[in-house]
Amino acid sequence: MKIVSDQWAKYGKGPNWSNGPLIGMDTETTNAEPLSARFVTSAIMLDVPGKEQQCWEWLSKPGWEMVEIGATAVHGISDEYANINGQEPDIVIREMYSVLSALQHQYNAPLVLTCSPFDLTILHNESQRLGLGKLEDNINLPPILDTLTLDRMLDMYRIGRRTLTSVAANYGIVFRYGAHQAKGDIDVTIRLARAIAKKYPKLATCNLHNLQRLQRQFHIEWLEQYTNYRRIESPDFYVTGDWPYIR
User: What is the CATH number for 136?
Assistant: First the structure.
């Protein structure tokens, strides 16, 4: 791939974001396909160095779409429990937009996600399904830090899985709240973003506006290579993709 860490200097420097506030978002969903999944749990976290983390959490009713057995096994929430105890999904999404907007207005901080094209695509699609408009109609997205994309960019030849658990372990990060829970995953993702920046100082001071273009370019290049690899055994393999979300 074209993008490697020693080329980053030409993309301009900015303030060291890794020493400042970070906003994290994570979701647990009905399935693993971003174009069809719906939210089950969602969380947004504010992490300011030297202060106690703040976290907002939601449980959504998935409605008529049953939570798949595999998804329930991952996050432990059954369709019955969510439909009895959860909020209507449009209320959850409105509140998520409200929290994100308020935090961005106050802190002007990057938004950290484990896999931006997953969470933001679902948010975008659910907003439209529920009559709330497109994602961009509801919020001005801050700069995105996608830890999966960043890890692939900076250590692309590392052998092994790229799940959040595996990547976090590679940086010596352990879960404090439990894996596959929105709050626990956000906490690890934020600490992972800071750890990646510490290991690769050019990332920490890369101009955040330019970093958005870098991440998108790399994600598209990676997706092309992944598609070509899968077509060796499955010639008809096709996957839709974009960054930071699929429109």
Answer: 3.30.420.10
